[in-house]
Amino acid sequence: MDACRMSGNEQARPAGTGLKRRDICMDESVTRAINAMKRSEFIATFGSVFREAPWAAEEAYECRPFADISALKSTLMAMVRGAPQEARLRVLRAYPGLETLLAVASPRERIISGTTAPAGLDQLSPEEFAQFRSLNKSYNERFDMPFLLYAEGNTAAGVMKLLEQRLRHEPEVEEAIAFREVGRFADPAFEAIFQKLATRNGD
C-alpha cells in the first residue's frame, strides 16, 4: 500500500494530467464501474495502457478505490516509476524514439514511401539531418534509452533545442522527463478506454 500512498490516490487529481476534461457525472459513473471491476477484468482493461507493463495494472488494482479517472492513471504511472530499473528501461525502450522518427524522415524513405514525419523532420537539410543523427546517437549512448518526445505540435528547431538541453541532464532527471513523455503517449489509449467504458456504462 505504500506505493498507493505515493501515487496520491487518496485525493482527486488536479487538472493538468493530460486527459480531457469531462462531465463530472460521467467521470464519477465510470470511476464507480472501475472500482467495482474484478481483478481479471481490471488487468485486461488497463494492462496495456503502458507498453511492456501489464504488471502495473496488477499492482494498481490493490490501490482501489480510485478517487477519479486521473487518480487511476497517476497510480498506474506510479507503479511503473517505482519498478526496478531494468523494468523501467523496458517500458521506455518500448516507445518510438527520435531514431524512429528520423528513419521515417530520411531522404531515402521519403522517396520510397512518400511518408511525412512529425515536427517537420522530413524537411531537414542533409546537414541538419546528420546533426540530428549525431546528437541522437550521443543521447542513446549517454542514457541507454531512446530520446522520447511526443512530437505533435513541435517543430524541428524545437526538437533540436530540447535534444541539446536534455543531453545535459543527469540520468535521474532525464528518466523523469522521458516518463512524462510516456504519459503523453499513453493518453490516447487511456482516453479510448474511458470512452468505451462510458459508452458501456451509459447503456
Instruction: Please tell me the total number of domains.
Output: 2
Share in β-strands: under 5%
Shape: elongated
- State the helix count: 11
Order of helices and strands: HHHHHHHHHHH
Oligomer: single chain
The beta-strand count equals 0
- The share of residues in helices is 55-70%
What profile does the largest beta sheet have?
Answer: none
Secondary structure category: mainly alpha
* CA-atom Rg in angstroms: 19 Å
Q: How widely separated are the two ends? A: 34 Å
Mean residue pLDDT: 86
Low-confidence stretches: 10-18, 109-114
Describe the fold and architecture.
The protein is mainly α and 203 residues long. It folds into two domains: 110 residues, no CATH class; 73 residues, UraD-like. It is elongated, with a radius of gyration of 19 Å. The two termini are 34 Å apart. About 7% of the residues have low confidence.
